[in-house]
Here is the input.
Amino acid sequence: MRGLREGFVVLILTSAENFFKVTAALLDYAVNEAFLNGVYITAGRPYTYLAKAFEDKGINIERIRFIDCISALAGIHAGREGNCIYVENPVALETISAHLDTLLSEIGSEKKFIFLDSLSTFLIYNTESSIAKFSHSLINKLRVLNTNGVFMSLEKEAPTETIQRLIQLCDKVIKID
Here is the structure.
């Protein structure tokens, strides 16, 4: 993320083995070094797990708002609790987008980020077409708001067509093995 201008959008492709390590390193930089506030959208791991894991890595989670799209499938009621909004499921893309607008407006700083974890997980629950539309809309929102965006995906599990659509919209694609 160093060397990119404000309002950048990056697609990170990595392996399953390195996914969490890469995620934590990127968040550590964004929150603890660049002092950004942001929104983390998760479809893979529950907020309670992520919050603890990030705190264990020294990441200041007070600077992060979360949209948890997976916990409700395990019985957590949709709604808000502290700095997390629980969405009923990862298929509710319009609801996710609306909650994202709410959380971004709550963040007081000009420098913000959105972290999407992960495209490959969202594709388990959604069609390629709906994820392409959602990603395109989200990237345009980031551009209009001059907000940084990081889209994570497992390199080997992401469909080539979806990745090719995103590559043309992103400022940079980074592959980390």
Notes: The two ends are 17 Å apart (CA to CA). The first strand starts at residue 9 and ends at 14. The chain has one domain: 9-176.
